[in-house]
């Protein structure tokens, strides 16, 4: 009897007992540079800083991670500078490697209208999804119809999931002039190692 063939469409979801069981993400943390902090120009005197000070309820830092416990578990990590800044970011919020020094960028920018017309089904889905995100603390509650100083808005779409009629929410950070992603140099985030299903399965 010949050897069994692997399914043609296995998509990396088959592994053997000899596969490596370490996490690529965990391994990369051993040599990763410390995560960046907001520049002083953003923390002091900027429109965004003043809005955060006036409306702290709109900018809560929410995480399911017990940061104190997480920090204790990593006391002997070989890259303590990285761990210290990750833990601080989990408590205070992460800075997305953005360069905000270009003075041509406006204080307020509304790209939310750069979207296609929505069907009634799509609008209902977006409304329900946004309400769920607010309930979970991942979106702030409504603060009116006008953006505050230092705020940018982005288009939101409801698109079908692959091979399904179910919808998923897409928030586009790259659309339009002065997009959020246009402030981030791709070289600064290149090389990030993320775990996949294969890594999880091998670890189990």
What is the topology?
Blueprint: H1 24-28, H2 40-43, H3 47-54, H4 67-73, H5 80-92, E1 109-110, H6 120-135, E2 152-153, E3 156-160, E4 167-171, H7 186-189, H8 197-203
Parallel strand pairs: 1-2
Antiparallel strand pairs: 3-4
Helix pairs in contact: 4-5
Radius of gyration: 21 Å
Q: Please give the count of helices.
A: 8
Give the beta-strand count. 4
Estimate the mean pLDDT confidence: 87
Name the structural class: mainly alpha
Strand order of the largest sheet: 1-2
Oligomer: single chain
Element string (H = helix, E = strand): HHHHHEHEEEHH
Q: Bin the helical content.
A: 25-40%
**Major sheet details:** 2 strands, parallel
Separation, N- and C-terminal Cα atoms: 30 Å
Please state the overall shape, judged from the principal axes of the Cα atoms.
globular
Structure description:
- This protein is mostly helical and 204 residues long.
- 31% of the residues lie in helices and 7% in strands.
- The chain has eight helices and four strands.
- It has helices at residues 24-28, 40-43, 47-54, 67-73, 80-92, 120-135, 186-189, 197-203; strands at residues 109-110, 152-153, 156-160, 167-171.
- The strands form two sheets. Strands 1-2 form a two-stranded parallel sheet. The protein has a two-stranded antiparallel ribbon with strand order 3-4.
- The longest helix has 16 residues, at 120-135.
- The chain is globular, with a radius of gyration of 21 Å.
């Amino acid at each position: 009897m010949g050897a069994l063939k692997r399914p043609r469409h296995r998509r990396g979801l088959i592994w053997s007992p000899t596969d490596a069981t370490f996490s690529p993400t965990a391994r990369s943390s051993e040599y990763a540079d410390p995560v960046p902090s907001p520049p002083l120009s953003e923390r002091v005197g900027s429109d965004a800083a003043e809005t955060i000070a006036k409306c702290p309820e709109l900018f809560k830092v929410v995480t399911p991670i017990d940061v104190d416990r997480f920090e204790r578990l990593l006391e002997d990590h070989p890259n303590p500078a990285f761990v210290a800044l990750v833990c601080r970011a989990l408590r205070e919020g992460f800075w997305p490697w953005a360069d905000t020094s270009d003075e041509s960028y406006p204080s307020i920018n509304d790209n939310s209208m750069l979207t296609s017309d929505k069907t009634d089904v799509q609008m209902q889905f977006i409304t329900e999804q946004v309400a769920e995100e607010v309930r979970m603390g991942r979106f702030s509650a409504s603060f009116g119809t006008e953006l505050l100083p230092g705020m940018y808005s982005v288009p939101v779409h409801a698109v079908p999931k692959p091979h399904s009629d179910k919808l998923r929410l897409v928030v586009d950070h790259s659309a339009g002039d002065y997009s959020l992603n246009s402030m981030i140099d791709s070289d600064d985030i290149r090389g990030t190692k993320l775990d996949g299903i294969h890594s999880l399965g091998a670890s189990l």
